[in-house]
Amino acid sequence: MENTVYDVVIIGAGASGLICARECARGGLKTLVLEKEQIPGRKLLATGNGRCNLTNTHVSPAAYHGDVALVSSALTQFPYLTCRKYFEELGILLTEEEQGRIFPQTGKSTAIVEPLKLAAVESGAEILTGQTVTVVQRETPFIVKTSSGETFRARRVVLACGSCAYPQIGGSESGYQLARSLGHTLTAPRPVLSGLVLQENFSRLAGIRAQVRLTADILPAQPSEGEIIFTGYGINGPAALNISPFIAPALDNGPVVIHVNFLPEITDPAAFWANRCARFENRRPKDFFAGLLHESLTNLLIDFKGLRKNKPMKEQFPSAVKNALNTVTAWPITVKALRPWTEAMVAAGGVKTREINYNTFESLCCPGVYVTGELLDVDGISGGFNLHFAWASGFIAAAQLIKER
Ligand SMILES: Cc1cc2nc3c(=O)[nH]c(=O)nc-3n(C[C@H](O)[C@H](O)[C@H](O)COP(=O)(O)OP(=O)(O)OC[C@H]3O[C@@H](n4cnc5c(N)ncnc54)[C@H](O)[C@@H]3O)c2cc1C
Q1: Nearest-atom index, ligand 1, CA of 384
Q2: Ligand 1 pocket test target in 387, 393, 396 with most atoms within 8 Å of CB
Q3: Is there a single domain that holds both residue 168 and residue 275?
Q4: Residue 137 shares a structural domain with residue 25
Q5: Nearest-CA neighbor of 288 among 308, 268, 264?
Q6: Would you say the CB of residue 387 lies under 6 angstroms from ligand 1?
Q7: Whole-angstrom distance, CA of residue 115 vs CA of residue 89
Q8: How does pLDDT run across 115-170, given as a tens digit for each residue?
Q9: Do 354 and 245 sit in the same domain of this protein?
Q10: Residue 199 and residue 187 in one domain
Q11: In this prediction, what percent of the chain has a pLDDT beyond 90?
Q12: How far is the C-alpha of 71 from the C-alpha of 139, rounded, in Å?
């Protein structure tokens, strides 16, 4: 065992662990980060399709599922502008894209991971990679053991281990096990922000993108709007991902029907269709929808609703046409499953938030231990909200660690 007693050992060099390490070291704490992967921030590098969507101008509790009080406290202490300024002060140029998504201007996630890691190390934090923590012993000081047989001592410990989502790039159950061993209980983790597997076969649309509105009985009043991408198994894309946290529990009771509106901009569909029919009733179905729907979607609609391809629309009035037009704005699809952990960006569930001090992220079950990031039972929608919460929780935990030194 090393003789050194660290002020803080942080388990996990991901989003919340790295920011926490930088802040603790900057605040004068003797800081050690233990990371099981061979490089820090392995999952971070994959975020935002390798571009790292690190926060969002619209950060607010409404973008999260889980404990509103905890999320509100985190966002009040570390709001969007504080987050933006933090990364700009690390020397990173940022850019805003649609729907308030913030990315590094280089278009590469290394532009976030490297400066953050450098800042942590330059502030004095030690980062040891290839070190899987297997045991945290509740003693004074805490004893932290790794699978390679190393033992470290620490006055305080931060569990910044993330979730089990995307095991191929570092996700694991390890954080849950450590938290349990220290007295915490868990809400069972579920894969969310993952694609929707459909009963219907849409594989002929694979690769096609559409701007849509998704509605379903199980969704809150606010529908999910944005892009979906058709895949071999069903649908993916931000609008689909964002309803996955609601679909996940509903699937326990069987398949879930949702409705896709392919014309979300049209406020009065009845008037819109009446006008289009008046103008284009002599056209065949394919030509009737030209300029409105993707051609492959039109073909699917024609087959699905039994429109006759070579007959003008006016000869198919009223029922077949009415039925087809209604389908364009409320196409029923049936979700039978979510894609598995290997494709789920985030885990819903995790360490129960009522066991955490809302203002500091310190464990109420085991004082001296802090729990941050996705290991907690908080998950955000797609758009930079999950990383924002990870930064916020790591930053706030560090502030408290420095204060109580
Ligand atoms: C493909 C993908 C894309 C994503 N894109 C975005 C995006 O663009 N924007 C966004 O906001 N969110 C995104 N997310 C979600 C986001 O990455 C996470 O919410 C965030 O990284 C959570 O931060 P964290 O610090 O809690 O955990 P992580 O960043 O996952 O870090 C946890 C670290 O702990 C290490 N660890 C775990 N157990 C141990 C142990 N026992 N010993 C030592 N080390 C351990 C892990 O190896 C890991 O490095 C994406 C996720 C994925 C998988």
Answers
A1: 11
A2: 387
A3: no
A4: yes
A5: 308
A6: yes
A7: 10
A8: 999 999 999 999 999 999 999 999 999 999 999 999 999 999 999 999 999 999 99
A9: no
A10: no
A11: 92
A12: 30
